């Protein structure tokens, strides 16, 4: 068996920089100012949005409490009406108006055969 020789290319290292670029302080100041402005704008807007959401939740809570108290008063009035309709006197009045007679009343008025 014969082996095929592998040819590896050789790379030469790039020459190292001998000089560094001068620092542009105007660019650094402009970028820092832009960062501070964007950060402040985001902080202010997020605070405002958070306060608006809290106020909306407070209003929703007040409205829910008001609706709950209205529902409670409506429930109380409906309970009173239901008690008036299903009470003993109301049922017996309706029964006598429609010709119904209680079975106990039939037993007391019936005649016994001797």
3D architecture notes:
- This protein is mainly alpha-helical.
- It contains three helices and no strands.
- It has helices at residues 25-86, 88-97, 103-109.
- The protein is elongated and about 125 Å long.
Structural topology:
Blueprint: H1 25-86, H2 88-97, H3 103-109
Poorly predicted runs are none
Radius of gyration: 47 Å
* Anisotropy-based shape: elongated
Q: For the residues shown, what is the average pLDDT? A: 86
Distance linking N and C termini = 136 Å
Give the biggest sheet.
none
Number of H- or I-type helical stretches: 3
Strand content: under 5%
Task: List the helices and strands in order.
Answer: HHH
**Total beta-strand segments:** 0
The assigned structural class equals mainly alpha
Brief overview:
With about 110 residues, the protein is mainly alpha-helical.
List keywords for this structure.
elongated, single chain, mainly alpha, 3 helices, 114 residues
């Amino acid at each position: 068996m014969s082996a095929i020789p592998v040819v590896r290319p050789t790379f030469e290292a790039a020459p190292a920089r001998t000089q560094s670029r001068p620092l542009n302080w105007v660019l650094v100041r402009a970028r820092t100012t832009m960062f501070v402005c964007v950060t402040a704008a985001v902080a202010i807007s997020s605070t405002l949005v958070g306060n608006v959401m809290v106020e909306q939740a407070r209003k929703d809570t007040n409205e829910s409490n008001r609706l709950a108290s209205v529902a409670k008063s409506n429930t109380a009035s409906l309970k009173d009406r239901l008690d008036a309709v299903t009470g003993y006197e109301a049922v017996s009045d309706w029964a006598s108006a429609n010709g119904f007679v209680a079975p106990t009343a039939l037993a007391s008025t019936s005649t016994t055969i001797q």
